[in-house]
């Protein structure tokens, strides 16, 4: 009867056995096969060689074998050698394989019979313990299969099995053996066959036994090789996997924080969360990254800052809408008062106040719950108020940290270099998240060669289930789309297989930044008091006095809805005007009331404020106020922060960057007031003032006043917008006659600010135009602030740099220069973010400080 020896499909499906489950032939038996198919084998290295192929004597010997099994009670039971499937199986499972792995076979000659004992290092119940093989007389040539019930006999103690007489085992050392098979060899062969045949391959015709044995040995060798190969492959895959996961981690580390949450890396698995389940509103991903310079070749050195304002590119930009400072009213009359009211207040004081407020509220971005872009409105979060004042130790200068040796090297390879086409490229505008990215969780792997995130790569959770080609394509497409978005948001640029960058943008912007009121979160207990009492705060800085105060408003006067508490904003150029405003608008103040105060003036003018206003002054540290105000605005005013895109037109220049409240920190805050403070902010209560500079707003207005006839800051800005800095600054082209290509310094780069204004150069010429001076001055100061901000950002590995302070004033030249400097020098790794309430951060922070006065 023939039984296939190779694994059946079923066993294949069951998978490959573990290495230590494989049965190997005893190492002391060597087999070789001649061309005619003759099989020889040697039990001992220098022992006799036996021939087993089609050997009639051997067959006789085989036939003469008799199995004797002993049950647990010691009663022997005889069987012929063609034992049942089950018996072979048991032999294989409980006897032989264990022997080869854990024990050894001892061949004993006892009473003219060969006795083979199993010796286990560890006693394992073995069927061999209960089975004896005895020589059988030739007349017992019964090959009928008999079923045995070994199951009940398995649990015997150690035993032996015996084979025919020793005389019958004639061996000739060193020669081809006599055509007779010794019983012990036969047993061994049988055992090989049993072991190899395993459960499903029990019976083989006797004359074919040796043939199959040799085949099995070959097979076994091959399998052994395969196992080793398999192990090696596994090790290889592990190291590849680790490498790739490391790569993903690098990419992950450079993603914006909200995407860090979307992409989870755990052990060797990278999971992209279902976007729709993310617990925060994602920023609009169709917003392209800020324009990057055409070339991103790392600079050899950074001695110069490029002037981003190429005169050829300058479009007449509309003058900014400055917040006009009203003259200080001389008295507290209601007529004068109206001149100081914010639009909201004007509406409220007018007969149709409620209607106007309603319209105004609808316009207010923080209330827009169903705008047509893909960003979900922010729900008000119950953010517990950190108790101020904040730890003063944080004000100390931090220990110097070693700057990173390379500036995010992994990013560089993604940058798109377009030297031929003089245009910027963005990625294809991704579809809205809600519809297109509503995918179930899936796993992705990052392919270092193709630089793509691939769906279910072979080594990561490969599904055995075959999906249809279209399904696969669909999934790949979905993943690519998400990858585009990730890349887009992280400023990584992907070149597709054709070498082109997919182009198209549909930026989503809401409105030109203004400085509207902010609605106080309605459900936070800490703001309950504001429904019954107005609160005022002031930030008295080196140049300006900023006031934040609350008012109450209803969308509809007659409705039962809870009214809203609004924060209103005003600024003054003098302390007198500021105090006057407070006197006139804070009508219902009482002596027990508190004026929340921050900035240098909170110390300088503390007594005066208390005296003139008849209230208590409560001081809040300036830096603490800045951070707490920044945190509050980012957290509660959805459209607070935005990036500036000079090349875009109209409102497209302003692209909003709402941020998940959980991922606001860390960030770098560069507050450009009279002077500059650079703060590394890790939480509302943990920050460091890592640096500062005196080259801020004060320097600009001071030098501007000396060098031009501008009367005030706005006048200076207006001049600058008309100016041509090339008449004032020495450019690279003025020195090199063109670009300095070795250093990749463009021809129109500013080599030296005000370089063309030396006495020598000016002599004999008509004096430089003041608008050119104003422009050059503004570029010089904002370039240097941008570079400083980038260096601090880089030093502390920040991804977002928020600019605050009234130097910015949403001025296009300033924002463009700062953005350019940050993008250029950080190679797109950092975002330059501006804020609607740029100059009011400190005043908002002081307003929020409810710690004891
Ligand atoms: N109307 C303005 N008058 C004077 N300076 C202004 C005005 N608007 C903007 N600025 C600029 O803002 C700077 C003051 O910014 P601010 O944040 O208020 O700082 P500070 O707290 O030091 O007053 C000034 O130095 C100036 O460069
Ligand atoms: C002293 C200040 C904190 C005052 O704040 P400001 O009124 O300028 O907003 C600020 O001007 C500043 O940080 N100046 C820079 C000092 C320096 O580090 O060089």
UniProtKB/TrEMBL annotation:
Name of protein: pantothenate kinase
Protein family according to the UniProt entry: Belongs to the type II pantothenate kinase family.
InterPro entries: ATPase_NBD, Type_II_PanK
Domain of life according to the entry: Eukaryota
NCBIfam families, per database record: panK_eukar (TIGR00555)
Pathway membership, UniProt: Cofactor biosynthesis; coenzyme A biosynthesis; CoA from (R)-pantothenate: step 1/5
GO molecular function, one term: pantothenate kinase activity
Keywords carried by this UniProt record: ATP-binding, Coenzyme A biosynthesis, Coiled coil, Cytoplasm, Kinase, Nucleotide-binding, Transferase
């Amino acid at each position: 009867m023939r039984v296939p020896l190779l694994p059946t499909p079923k066993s294949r499906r069951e998978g490959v056995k573990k290495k230590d489950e494989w049965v190997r032939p005893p190492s002391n038996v060597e087999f070789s096969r001649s061309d005619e198919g003759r099989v020889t084998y040697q039990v001992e290295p220098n022992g006799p060689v036996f021939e087993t192929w089609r050997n009639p004597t051997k067959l006789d010997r085989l036939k003469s074998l008799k199995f004797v099994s002993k049950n647990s009670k010691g009663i022997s039971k005889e069987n012929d050698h063609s034992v049942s499937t089950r018996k072979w199986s048991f032999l294989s499972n409980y006897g032989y394989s264990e022997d080869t792995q854990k024990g050894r076979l001892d061949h004993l000659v006892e009473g003219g019979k060969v006795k083979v004992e199993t010796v286990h290092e560890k006693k394992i119940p073995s069927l061999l313990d209960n089975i004896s093989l005895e020589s059988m007389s030739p007349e017992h040539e019964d090959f009928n299969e008999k079923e045995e019930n070994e199951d009940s006999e398995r649990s015997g103690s150690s035993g032996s099995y015996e084979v025919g007489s020793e005389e019958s085992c004639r061996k000739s050392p060193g020669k081809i053996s006599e055509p007779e098979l010794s019983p012990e060899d036969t047993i061994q062969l049988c055992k090989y066959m049993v072991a190899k045949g395993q459960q499903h391959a029990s019976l083989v015709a006797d004359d074919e036994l040796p043939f199959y044995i040799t085949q099995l040995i070959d097979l076994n060798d091959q399998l052994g090789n395969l196992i080793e190969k398999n192990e090696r492959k596994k090790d290889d895959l592990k190291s590849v996997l680790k490498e790739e996961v490391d790569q993903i981690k690098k990419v992950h580390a450079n993603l914006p924080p909200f995407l860090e949450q979307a992409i989870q890396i755990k052990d060797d698995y990278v999971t992209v969360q279902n976007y729709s389940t993310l617990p925060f509103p994602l920023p609009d991903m169709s917003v392209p990254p800020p324009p990057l310079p055409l070339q991103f070749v790392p600079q050899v050195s950074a001695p110069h800052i490029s002037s981003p304002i190429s005169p050829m590119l300058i479009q007449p930009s509309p003058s900014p809408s400055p917040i006009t400072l009203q003259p200080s009213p001389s008295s507290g009359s209601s007529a004068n008062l109206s001149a100081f009211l914010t639009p909201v207040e004007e509406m409220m004081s007018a007969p149709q106040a409620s209607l106007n407020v309603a319209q105004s509220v609808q316009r207010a971005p923080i209330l827009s719950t169903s705008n047509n872009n893909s960003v979900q409105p922010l729900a008000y979060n119950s953010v517990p108020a950190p108790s101020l004042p904040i730890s003063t130790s944080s004000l100390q200068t931090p220990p110097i940290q070693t700057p990173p040796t390379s500036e995010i090297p992994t990013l560089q390879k993604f940058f798109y270099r377009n030297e031929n086409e003089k245009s910027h490229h963005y990625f294809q505008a991704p579809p809205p998240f809600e519809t297109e990215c509503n995918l179930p969780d899936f796993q992705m792997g990052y392919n270092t060669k193709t630089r793509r995130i691939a769906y279910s790569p072979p080594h990561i959770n490969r599904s055995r289930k075959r999906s249809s080609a279209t399904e696969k394509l669909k999934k790949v497409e979905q993943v690519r789309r998400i990858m585009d978005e990730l890349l887009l948001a992280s400023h990584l640029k992907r070149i597709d297989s054709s070498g082109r960058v997919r182009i198209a943008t549909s930026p989503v912007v809401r409105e030109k930044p203004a400085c509207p009121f902010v609605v106080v979160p309605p459900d936070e207990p800490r703001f309950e008091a504001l429904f019954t009492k107005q609160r005022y705060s002031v930030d008295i800085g080196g140049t300006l006095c900023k006031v934040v105060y609350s008012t109450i408003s209803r969308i509809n006067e007659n409705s039962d809805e809870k009214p809203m508490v609004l924060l209103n904003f005003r600024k003054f150029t003098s302390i007198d005007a500021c105090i006057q405003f407070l006197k006139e608008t804070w009508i219902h103040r009482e002596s027990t009331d508190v004026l929340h105060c921050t900035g240098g003036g909170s110390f300088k003018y503390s007594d005066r404020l208390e005296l003139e206003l008849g209230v208590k002054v409560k001081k809040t540290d300036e830096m603490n106020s800045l951070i707490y105000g920044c945190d509050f605005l980012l957290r509660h005013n959805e459209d607070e922060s935005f990036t500036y895109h000079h090349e875009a037109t109209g409102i497209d220049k302003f692209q909003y960057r709402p941020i998940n409240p959980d991922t606001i920190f860390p960030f770098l805050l560069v507050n450009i007031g009279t002077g500059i403070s650079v703060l590394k902010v890790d939480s509302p209560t943990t920050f460091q003032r890592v640096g500062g500079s005196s080259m801020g707003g004060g320097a600009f207005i001071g030098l501007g006043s000396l060098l031009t006839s501008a009367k005030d800051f706005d006048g200076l800005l207006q001049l600058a917008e008309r100016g041509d800095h090339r008449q004032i600054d020495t450019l690279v082209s003025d020195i090199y006659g063109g670009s300095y290509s070795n250093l990749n310094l463009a021809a129109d780069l500013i080599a030296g600010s005000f370089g063309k204004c030396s006495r020598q150069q000016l002599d004999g010429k008509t004096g430089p135009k003041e608008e050119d001076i104003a422009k050059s001055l503004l570029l010089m100061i904002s370039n240097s602030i941008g570079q400083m901000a980038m260096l601090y950002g880089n030093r502390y590995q920040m991804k977002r740099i928020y600019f605050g302070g009234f130097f910015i004033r949403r001025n296009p030249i300033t924002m463009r220069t700062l953005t350019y400097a940050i993008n250029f020098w950080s190679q797109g790794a950092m975002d330059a973010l501006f804020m609607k309430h740029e100059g009011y951060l400190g005043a908002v922070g002081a307003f929020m400080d409810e710690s004891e006065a």
